[in-house]
Amino acid sequence: QKEVEQNSGPLSVPEGAIASLNCTYSDRGSQSFFWYRQYSGKSPELIMSIYSNGDKEDGRFTAQLNKASQYVSLLIRDSQPSDSATYLCAVTAGRRALTFGSGTRLQVQP
Amino acid sequence: NAGVMQNPRHLVRRRGQEARLRCSPMKGHSHVYWYRQLPEEGLKFMVYLQKENIIDESGMPKERFSAEFPKEGPSILRIQQVVRGDSAAYFCASSPENTGELFFGEGSRLTVL
Predict the structure, then answer these.
(1) Is B110 in contact with B46 (CB distance < 8 Å)?
(2) Closest chain B residue to A92 measured between Cα atoms?
(3) pLDDT tens for each residue of chain B, 113 residues long
């Protein structure tokens, strides 16, 4: 079982729609959760972090965490073509370095 | 404030040669991480270092690979006797603390002929 699992996609949504990206993790001791965005040929960049159960909103992005279900999600409202990228879920616990999922490729159709 | 600097950006080596990848973290960052990414795949953790210390090298192959982060100078990821399977993008990231909020360099793309 992979430590962090994501559907590879591609997830295709029309411009203006809500994109929903999901992630599950196996280590119940995980404490911190992150979403990184990676454009093709570029390096990852942090877009959201979440540490406690519930929702966290930042602009068009909402991260959701459910520790009981070991589930993290990212919602992107009013999706734009510029949001087309690979979204990487990542988790960490204790002194361990960040563990990434394999990413979900999002395509926003104009 | 300069970001994480990696060099070389592109490196071509023949099988059996050595590859050295360098990473200068952001100013004020003492935690450095190396990740490897194959095409169309996620980031695979290799090693986590803090100044002069290896904190976690559980993701690094036991043979041919080594990493260091000396008191002065950049962190170096060294791959000896490269093989074609080593061809990948190697990303370095840094952070001021081990919080998971990483700042990535542009990566070094290694091609082994």
Answers:
(1) no
(2) B100
(3) 579 999 999 999 999 999 999 999 999 999 999 999 988 788 999 999 998 899 999 999 999 999 999 988 999 999 999 999 999 999 999 999 888 899 999 999 999 99
Q: For residue B69, list its beta bridge partners.
A: none
Comparing CB atoms, the residue among B33, B43, B59 nearest residue A88 is: B43
- Report the C-alpha gap between B23 and B70 in whole angstroms: 11
Question: In angstroms, what separates the C-alpha of A17 from chain B's closest C-alpha?
Answer: 25
Interacting residues of A60 by C-beta distance below 8 A, sequence separation 6+: A76, A77, A78
A102 close contact with B: CB closer than 8 A: yes
| C-alpha to C-alpha distance for B21 and A86, rounded to whole angstroms | 25
Q: CB count, 10 Å around CB of A52?
A: 9
Contact at CB, A102 and B42, closer than 8 angstroms? yes
